[in-house]
Amino acid sequence: MGGAPDQDDADGSWIRGAELSETQPQGAPGPGESAASPVSCWRCQLEYAGTLEKCPHCGAQKRRAAAASQTVALSSGDHRPLGALIWAYSIMLGVGLALVGFQRTLAANEALDLSDLQATIIGAELFQGILCLVYLWISRGCCPQPPAPPWGPTLAWSLALPVLAAALAVNVGYHFVLRQIVGVGPEQDILSQSSQAFLVLVVCVEPAIIEELFCRHRALGVLRQYVGAHGAVWISATMFALLHIAAFLSVPYLLLLGAVLAYLRIASGTLLLPMLMHFLHNLLISIWLQEQMVP
Going by C-beta distance under 8 Å and a sequence separation of 6 or more, which residues neighbour residue 215? Predict the structure, then answer.
């Protein structure tokens, strides 16, 4: 089982770096180049003969490949993709910090109840979701990720359930030890008292879509251009963990989870697998928390 590689729209985006000459048709050879000169594929970054209409490695059309080969951000010194990522992430992180401050203010006044917590979470996730979608639209066509290795999808999908089970075990074990240290039990987790509809939509569906699009799609793709696959995995995992700053004690575990999801994204060549893993992880943890509630 596997998914198709991401296919960003490579046309019309300001963030793609140096522009082609307005007088040079897309797909035409550049100055000093012949039609047989090798071109670099926009999708897989591999070179192939310019006489071919499609990339023989991944099937990308020559027109888009030729455009991308002349608009690589790093070779032109254009770091706008990285700058846009930093700005978008800074705003999303600021929203998380504001949520923490608001919750602490209510808790200090003994005014924090379930409805207040739900309202602040919904507002924060709605704002972050809109911001993420706007950023993705602005940065469309930026930094497409290379395809998965030939063995990657089969291995990633076959290991998905065992990896999910291991992640759930680590999650439960980590928070069990944490609760023993700080003296907080599941019955005091006010969010676990929410309705099933709230938990599914806000805790499971929205993060599985928005956080994966931002962290394992765009952030991972941009960072791979600068620090390679492994560096991008751990930096994007750190970004993912810090987005949950409201649950500060869970950040170390979320860092590990983010890295696992990023490696699955790279191995599978599709965002579908980490999305499904993220959804199932949050859903099963939410069900477990509700079952642990003291009557």
Answer: 236, 237, 239, 240, 243, 258, 261, 262
**Do the domain assignments include residue 17?**
no
Give the 3-state secondary structure of residue 48: strand
Q: Token pair of 115, please? A: 């409805």
pLDDT score for 9 = 43
Structural domain for 284, as ranges: 80-291
Contact 3, 270 (CB under 8 A): yes
Answer whether residue 171 is part of any domain: yes
Token pair listed for 223: 């960072």
Torsions phi, psi of 192, nearest 5? -70, -10
Q: Give dist(CA 183, CA 181) in Å, integer.
A: 6
Average pLDDT over residues 84-92: 94
Question: What is the residue whose two structure tokens read 């999908």?
Answer: 157
Tokens of 180: 């023993």
**Contact predicate 164/208, CB 8 Å:** no
Identify the pLDDT of residue 245. Answer: 87
Q: Which of 137-146, 167-176, 190-199, 243-252 has the highest mean pLDDT?
A: 167-176
Among the residue ranges 107-121, 127-141, 178-192, the one predicted with the least confidence is: 178-192
Which residues, at least 6 apart from 97, have a Cβ–Cβ distance to it below 8 Å? 245
SS3 state at 67 = helix
Q: How many domains does the chain have?
A: 1
Q: Is residue 266 part of a domain?
A: yes
Question: Residues near 16 by Cβ (< 8 Å), separated by ≥ 6?
Answer: 10, 68, 71, 73, 141, 142
pLDDT at 281 over 50: yes
Q: Could you tell me if residue 268 is inside a domain?
A: yes
